[in-house]
Design brief:
The chain has two helices and five strands. It is of the alpha+beta class and about 120 residues long. Bound molecules: adenosine monophosphate (AMP).
């Protein structure tokens, strides 16, 4: 698995080549505001390492997954989402995935409908 894919938009954000509104950065995980927000809080939480999507995850990624969800919790706490929030990851074209670098959408700040469209 490649660490950095030079054709990947989110690898470009990780490396700083592409600007983003960062809300968290550490050695494994970065989080930034979605450029087209679908809720008052809409943050994308991603691994620095290039992983195409959730389908590509293996047991070897357990630690980074725990780190990703730790950042989800921290961002939700900082945003004051005490009434709840949604975490979404799209996998493949039929789901609506448009960027093929694993990312968790953290959406909150308004009531959410179910099921999603
Ligand atoms: P998905 O459709 O699940 O692959 O999600 C990709 C998300 O990335 C979409 O919600 C886009 O609005 C968002 N996005 C695309 N380009 C950027 C960018 N340069 N900075 C921040 N978010 C972006």
């Amino acid at each position: 698995m490649t660490e950095h894919d030079s054709d990947c938009l989110f690898c470009g954000i990780v490396s700083g080549e592409i600007p983003a509104d960062m809300v968290h950065e550490d050695d494994e995980v970065v989080a930034f505001r979605d450029i087209a927000p679908r809720a008052p809080t809409h943050v994308l939480v991603i691994p620095r390492r290039h992983i195409a999507d959730a389908q590509a995850l293996t047991h070897a990624d357990a630690a980074v997954l725990a780190r990703l969800f730790g950042v989800v919790r921290k961002v939700a706490d900082e945003a004051g989402l005490d009434r709840g929030y949604r975490v979404v990851t799209n996998v493949g074209p039929e789901s609506g995935q448009t960027v093929f670098h694993l990312h968790f959408h953290l959406l909150g700040g308004r009531p959410m409908a179910w099921p999603p469209g």
